[in-house]
Write a structure and sequence with these properties.
This protein is α+β, with helices and mostly antiparallel strands. Helices cover about 40% and strands about 10% of the residues. One of its GO terms (biological process) is mycotoxin biosynthetic process.
Length: about 260
């Protein structure tokens, strides 16, 4: 069952409405000038904090670990479709709820320091209530977190642009966080490029109803569950990467379809 969405979204409206909004936009330019200054200031503060954090942690040695959670798990064919339950394959509100249901925090894990060192992993901050374990974030879950936030903010910004007089609850990260997310996703794609060749069927229809080779997401999900950074003793939310989910104790599911059954996608 799809849970009730906790965010507000709006549809990207048709060209006629967009054209009307373009004509009216100058009236609201001054309205956003103050907001722009605030966002710029927030970005500077955020970037300064990130620079300080990087400098503070720069003593930690780099990592050349070859450890892989998926290991030799085989790839299998999954048929790709242009539309899905996460794009235009259903009601817009239900699509938003599916995106909101994804728990990117599932990828926050706690690993024994000695074991991690033996695998060649970089040192990590200790679990707040257990200094024998370090806190790690599985790469792809970090990208999912970024993707969720970018998508949510995209819909909210469109609504503000088209209906600037509307009042609604909205929350945004500092601009520097979005810059980090764009950079992180870019580097992840370049580091692990998908080289599957999709046939061009027509303009804006690439790869529809064609197969791609996929790894078994369930292996990743179950490993993360078994090594979860769930910390019931962290009553003060001291874990620095709790990502708005106190204690990271949400259960064994990340609510991401594993892809074997194509109707789930």
């Amino acid at each position: 069952m799809v849970a009730e969405s906790k965010h507000t979204y709006s549809l990207v409206l048709d060209k006629e409405i967009l054209d009307e909004s373009e004509q009216e936009y100058p009236r609201y330019r001054r309205q956003y000038s103050g907001l722009a200054r605030i966002l710029i200031l927030a970005s500077l503060v955020s970037n300064a904090f990130l620079a300080g954090y990087i400098a503070y942690t720069s003593w930690q040695p780099g990592s050349s670990s070859t450890f892989s959670i998926l290991g030799d798990s085989p790839a299998y064919p999954v048929r790709y479709f242009q539309t899905s339950n996460y794009s235009t394959g259903g009601d817009e509100q239900e699509i938003n709820m599916r995106w909101d249901d994804i728990i990117a925090q599932h990828g926050v894990v706690a690993l024994d320091h000695t074991w991690a060192a033996g695998q060649g992993l970089s040192p990590a901050l200790s679990l707040p209530s257990d200094d024998t374990k370090g806190v790690y974030l599985i790469d792809v879950y970090h990208s999912l977190h970024c993707l969720q936030e970018i998508r949510r903010s995209y819909h909210q910004l469109w609504d503000f642009y088209l209906h600037p007089s509307n009042k609604q609850d909205a929350s945004f990260f500092p601009p520097g966080h979005y810059s980090h997310c764009f950079d992180y996703i870019l580097r992840s794609m370049v580091c692990n490029p998908s080289d599957h060749l999709f046939g061009l069927l027509e303009i804006e229809r690439v790869g529809d109803a064609q197969d791609r080779q996929c790894r078994d997401w369930r292996v990743l999900r179950d490993w993360a569950s078994a090594n979860s950074a769930c910390d019931p003793n962290d009553t003060e939310n001291l874990n620095p990467v709790h990502l708005d989910l106190p204690n990271l104790c949400h259960g064994k599911d990340d609510f991401i379809p594993h892809g074997i059954n194509t109707e789930d996608l």
